[in-house]
Amino acid sequence: MEAKLRGYQKYAVDFIINNRYCGLFLDMGLGKTLSTLTAIADLQLLEDLGKVLIIAPLAVARNTWPDEIHKWDSTKGLSYSTILGSAQQRAAALQQTTDLYITNRENVPWLVEYYGRKWPFKTVVIDELSSFKSPQAKRFKALRKVRPLMHRVIGLTGTPAPNSLLDLWPQMYLLDRGERLGKTIGDYRRTYFHPGMQAGYVVYNWELNQGAAESIYSRINDITISMQSRELLELPPRTDNIVEVEMTAKETEQYKRLQKDFVLPELGADGITASNAAILANKLLQLANGAIYDDDHRTITIHDHKLDALANIIDEAQGQPVLVFYQFKHDAARIRDKFRQARMLDTGSDDVQQWNQGNIPLLLAQPQSAGHGLNLQQGGHIIVWFGLTWSLEYYQQANARLARQGQTQPVIVHHIVTKDTIDERVLLVLQGKAKGQAALLDAVKAQLGGA
What we know:
The chain is an alpha/beta fold and 451 residues long. It has 3 domains: 7-232 and 439-450, Tandem AAA-ATPase domain (Rossmann fold), CATH 3.40.50.10810; 234-246 and 305-420, P-loop containing nucleotide triphosphate hydrolases (Rossmann fold, 3-Layer(aba) Sandwich), CATH 3.40.50.300; 248-302, no CATH class. Helix content is 41%, strand content 20%. The chain is globular.
């Protein structure tokens, strides 16, 4: 198939070619993969790129990058090797002589240790750069060691600051080695932030200094571009729908007791306890969904209200495929027990192809594993959130599996929310965080066409 690049994609290609290290903060569905592959193919005619490494989420490394390479006439000439599987399989794949080497982000520490100071990859593409947002993560520390040995670095993400602008420093460091935002996370915090809530020397959160956001944006805008689909694509409209369910008086009493006391001794063989606030939040989310793990990790069913709501949505879909995002394993198990046509998404199989061909009526997926890079827009236009995620990044990325370029029908996103529970708070958190994310993207927005 001939790749007919849109104007903004040509802009992205040129930006990659003209900047040895750059960040493309492109909204989901804007064709980051195609733009990057086109730039690599063009650069191969201009310079010696050396070995090219592409780092991506597992499903994206296994499916999306190879699929995109084969799809387009201009890129299918690129040879590639996928560095996946066992250590023996990965080592064998590295011995192949090829244009591109594709691996998943979890393999980065192994890869750095495998090569040591003989790191061979002059050009590195980091797909979903925001997954390197933690300076304490092994993957960041490993890649930081070999960053001086890279001649070109391309960072791709649609959510560069999923929680706060603190997330930006590790990502920018992998691009420019601290030139713009400081050599250490400590320098970055001291320059642009001040302690928020703290107890003695323990700081629970950091708040931006006045004018700091604008300063950060101005520091990075020469090597980053931002593009948003709502401004560049005429996508079918998206409708967000809240489907409320309500617990019985007994179920509500159990919920409130767990919320207050951190314990429900009468449920399960050994009861249900939450040792801290984070665990309590997860327990409350489970209870709102209708089932909860006891202290021996056995599933205790509380109610079926969300399952009944899902049944109504499926009935109203009149046979159209439905994509359901779930959070806990017992959610998926209960959905599969009630709906025999449901299939769990396995990115290592042909499920993506089968979905896009309309052969899967009800597909279940966790946003953590299916939220990045998968193209599912050809198979349906109805999303159901059976249980919400706290992560704005996972939430936005998951919705973008259907609400993206190539979608031909209006997208409907149903959120099944249990009234007077933590569900309502999670939805508010997601809506509130989105404002900060949008501010970053607007600040470094590419001025296409000289505008």
